[in-house]
Amino acid sequence: MFKYETIIYWSKEDQDYPAEVPELPGCMAHGDSYEAALANVKEAIQL
Question: Which residues form the HicB-like antitoxin of toxin-antitoxin system domain (predicted)?
């Protein structure tokens, strides 16, 4: 599996954790918790 830099942060406006992968344009996900956002972005990377 490839390793990509993933940026996860708290969005006060959306009240969730967006996750972005800068090396893969358009590859984004979000979750209610940090762990959920990470799991979701890992799935997005696989797609």
Answer: 11-46
Q: Distance (Å, rounded) from C-alpha 3 to C-alpha 13?
A: 29
Residue 2 within any structural domain of the chain: no
Tokens of 13: 């406006």
* Residue 22, amino acid: P
If you ran DSSP here, which 8-state letter would residue 24 be given? S
Mean pLDDT for the chain overall: 95
Helix (H) / strand (E) element for 29: namely: strand 28-31
- Residue 13 located in a structural domain: yes
d(CA 6, CA 30): 12
Neighbouring-strand partners of residue 25: none
